[in-house]
TrEMBL record:
Residues 355-396 form the RING-type domain. Its main location: membrane. GO terms for molecular function: zinc ion binding. It comes from Paramecium pentaurelia. Keywords: Membrane, Metal-binding, Transmembrane, Transmembrane helix, Zinc, Zinc-finger. This is RING-type domain-containing protein. InterPro entries: EGF (IPR000742), Znf_RING (IPR001841). It is found in: Membrane. The chain crosses the membrane at residues 288-315. GO terms for cellular component: membrane.
Amino acid sequence: MISIILTLIQTSVADILYQNSFNSTIGIQSIPLNQYCSSLSQENKLRVMLTQQSNNHSLLAICQTNLIDFEKFQTLFQQDNYHDYNCLVDYNAYILENQTQQIVLSQQKMPTLVSQYHNIFSIENNSCFAIIYSKLNSILILTIERIGIDDCVVNCKNQGICIKGFCQCPLGYLGFDCNIVSSNIHQNSYFHGLQIFYLDLITLQTNDYKLILNSELQYTITCYANSSHLLFTSNQNSIIYITEESIIQCKEATERLRVFTQLRYYSQFVIITNTTSVVKLAELEEQYYSIILVISVLASILGVILLFMTLIYLLKIYKAKQAIKNKQQFENLMPAQQFMLVSDRVPEIKVETTCSICLESFKSSSLVRMTYCEHIFHSSCLEKWMKNNKVCPLCRAGLDTQTIQSKKKIEPQNFKGKNGQGSILQQLSFFPKHDGTLHSIDGSLSYHSPVIKSLPINQPKNLN
């Protein structure tokens, strides 16, 4: 009821020649329009509209002859535009189940290409019939209006522009009034239900076009310049293919259409698909698994890199801890002291006044370290020496941690130096003799000193 009211409001401001509401019956009804076609001038055109109230199961056709044979009328559903019976049908409205179907009639002779695209019926011999086919009983309204030759049938929708009686539609919008929305098939990965797509030939980078699907679906492919009518899906396959020859022909048809109407048209194929199940691109599955494989490989590489970096980090931490531990051991075994304090603990005959490493004289306040072999060096000089050498710079005695610790373990007490409180030389008497084998901090063999064998001393014979 609402659609009928809107139709009445819309047509109230137009030049209405005929309007009638009637009950349709199942089958074919024929309404002659010869009087309107014969009186139509070259400056005007007729708009014939069929509005359905309760259902969308009726089809309007404008034919040159009175087509009342049902079997012949059925062939209209199998064709896209003009037929042997010279009829025109608003397929788009019928397929999309719109409540209103409309066809334009004109006395002007125009190429079939233009007539098909803009849904315009060219009148011949002033003969025309409105043929209505209904599947069910319903209430219909048939309206005939007269409009100017440069007027569009309806207001152009979706930012379409009316130019010389034709709607110039943006890319992606179809129909003589731009009311049908289609999607770019390049941006689609899944198919389900009834869908309308367009293939833009200008941006197509291949000579032909092939779309491989993971299962079959129903589809129809039409060059939009040849017909703006949506067709029933008549093909069923898992491959949608458009040949190079078809693409070239479609571009040529689009150019002919542009030359005649002076409008801008897009070279495009309209692809209608219909499926009850979800169908997707087969190459999308391969791409999906390829992506998964690439991600897995990258994740594995990243995991190895992270593991390697973690091991390096842990190794650095371990080395840092070992360095701290070694430094602590170094400080414990050979603490840094002022020279004046160390010299008090060493017999005067053994006091060294010069560092054997840097050859500079000691000062009373100089920070020095004394080895267990009673040699004194600047603290900084000995530290630098110990980085590359684990022996005493003077006597080549082992200064590795293992050797020093073994010497320290057998110390019975702390010995004092001067003032008659015991000589540091007495300490050495408690140390086992060095066997000439030195070990580094990690326990490996680091130095071999020559083994000096002691020779027995023969006691002089008693002459008595």
